[in-house]
């Protein structure tokens, strides 16, 4: 049984369904590229380039460093009953760390115009890595067993930290298209990562800055070295 609901507005409607579903809803409603709507026999209300300016912040994982102090977030340290109870009762402990990210940095690479633009790279500092997650994060990240064993196998028992460079101002633009006129069908997403080579240059520069940072005195005190 299908129910239809009609709502009127005096001024405007603010559609807030996320960067993927917002353009999908608009196109299903007849607001979008004419050729895309006509493909699915959707009456065109407004011919606009909806879904043609998708931007994503690409990040690079894998910059993992080994240290000689037992201070990182490892699975066995954050999943015990004592840790869980401490978090539930006191709001304290390692479970208060959002995704293991304990620090952020916004950095200008040599490609950024410092006088006009905001930084073009963001660093996520993680108090650990994928090496001790019992393959849970590797599944989320889509890592194969072969890759995981080759990259993290030798340091499974080690304490680590990681830094993840992320593009803040990508020039590449993706596209969101309709798969069908059925609102329950996921739309088609063409991310077009690194379509503009400038994005790759900025991210590589971010890696260089991260590597240089890992060699500073605070990290040398922990005998930090790159797992590469």
UniProtKB/TrEMBL annotation:
Pfam families for this protein: GMC_oxred_C, GMC_oxred_N
Molecular function in Gene Ontology: flavin adenine dinucleotide binding; oxidoreductase activity, acting on CH-OH group of donors
SUPFAM superfamilies referenced in this protein's UniProt entry, alphabetically: FAD-linked reductases, C-terminal domain, FAD/NAD(P)-binding domain
This protein's name: Glucose-methanol-choline oxidoreductase N-terminal domain-containing protein
Start and end residues of each Glucose-methanol-choline oxidoreductase N-terminal domain: 18-32
Cleavable signal peptide: none
InterPro entries the UniProt entry points to: FAD/NAD-bd_sf, GMC_OxRdtase, GMC_OxRdtase_N, GMC_OxRtase_C
Family annotation (PANTHER family): GLUCOSE DEHYDROGENASE [FAD, QUINONE]-LIKE PROTEIN, GLUCOSE-METHANOL-CHOLINE GMC OXIDOREDUCTASE
């Amino acid at each position: 049984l299908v129910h239809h609901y009609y709502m009127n507005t005096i001024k405007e409607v603010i559609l807030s369904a996320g960067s993927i579903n917002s353009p999908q809803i608009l196109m299903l409603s007849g607001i979008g590229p004419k050729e895309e709507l006509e493909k699915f026999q959707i009456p065109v209300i407004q011919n606009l380039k909806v879904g043609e300016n998708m931007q994503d912040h690409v990040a690079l994982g894998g910059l993992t460093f080994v240290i000689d102090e037992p201070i990182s977030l490892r699975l066995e340290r954050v999943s015990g009953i004592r840790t869980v109870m401490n978090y539930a009762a006191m709001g304290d402990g390692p479970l208060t760390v959002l995704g293991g990210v304990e620090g952020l940095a916004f950095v200008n690479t040599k490609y950024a115009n410092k006088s006009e633009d905001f930084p073009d790279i963001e660093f996520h500092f993680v108090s650990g890595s994928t090496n001790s997650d019992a393959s849970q994060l590797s599944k989320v990240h889509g890592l194969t067993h072969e890759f995981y064993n080759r990259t993290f196998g030798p340091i499974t028992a080690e304490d680590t930290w990681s830094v993840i460079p992320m593009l803040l101002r990508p020039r590449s633009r993706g596209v969101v298209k309709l798969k069908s006129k059925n609102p329950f069908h996921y739309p088609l997403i063409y991310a077009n990562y690194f379509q503009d080579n400038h994005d790759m240059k900025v991210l590589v520069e971010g890696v260089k800055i991260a590597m240089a940072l890992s060699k500073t005195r605070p990290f040398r005190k922990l005998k930090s070295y790159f797992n590469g």
